[in-house]
Amino acid sequence: MKIENINLVYFSATNTTRRVVRHIAEQMQGSKKEYNITGTTPETEIVMGSSDLLVVGMPVYSGRIPAIALPALGKFKGNGTPAVIVCVYGNRDYDDALLELKDVVEANGFKVVSAGAFIAQHSIFPKVGLNRPDEKDLELIKEFADKSTALIAVTSDVSALPEITPKGNRPYKVPGNLPLQPKGSKQCTECGTCVKQCPAQAIALETPRKTDKSKCISCGRCITVCPENARNYGGFIYKMAGAMFLRSFSARKEPTIIM
Predict the structure, then answer these.
(1) Strands of 81-89's sheet, edge to edge?
(2) Residue 35 class from Cβ within 10 Å (0-12 exposed, 13-18 middle, 19+ buried)?
(3) pLDDT tens profile 50-106
(4) What is the average pLDDT across 211-215?
(5) Which overall architecture, per CATH, does domain 183-232 show?
(6) What is the model's pTM?
(7) How far apart (Å, rounded) are the C-alpha atoms in residues 10 and 72?
(8) SS3 154
(9) Domain 5-171+253-258 fold
């Protein structure tokens, strides 16, 4: 079947998932449109047909895709439309995230033809997965995109393709409560950038150096967008947890490709 339109959908707090999804799309021929759902939800449903392709990427938070992204994902509807799904995780594990993403996408009318789990620098403990995705990762992402394109091209009806089976469990794992949230330092100029771009609305305009622990999902968005580098994780608990995490998960993991 011939794909004319490639629709990129992603939640990307630190811009790494966006980088992976874009690298996939760069290998594909067709008109491209991006939907960045990091903290935003389309006002109306976006319906795709048989000449469309959905490429959707999600980060992994505690072994799940971010719950905050689910309302936005629900706005994208297919009609047997092929989909390529990707999870990006920080070298620990993607647990149930890829299975969950498959379930969500297929419930919205898409046929998942391929799935990938790729590694990135950890958003909370950046020494884990440092500088990933690296050149080797990018080559594998390109290979994944090429194989996905070829699979769709030789298929007249994607519904006839065998069902792919990512690892994972149903019911999905229950994410734990992470007692680590970034906060602002004295370098903060109260410009409001983090307030506007926090997908969880966990930073108040009146007190931009503080973080609402009940809302924060520890995605690192505020750290990435701060023009003064004034927001970061810190403190004794963070230092101790970081040392333990590094010892446990520093061994390099490789991407997973399923099709």
Answers:
(1) 31-36, 5-10, 52-59, 81-89, 110-119, 256-258
(2) middle
(3) 899 999 999 999 999 999 999 999 999 999 999 999 999 999 999 999 999 999 999
(4) 95
(5) 2-Layer Sandwich (3.30)
(6) 0.96
(7) 10
(8) coil
(9) Rossmann fold (3.40.50)
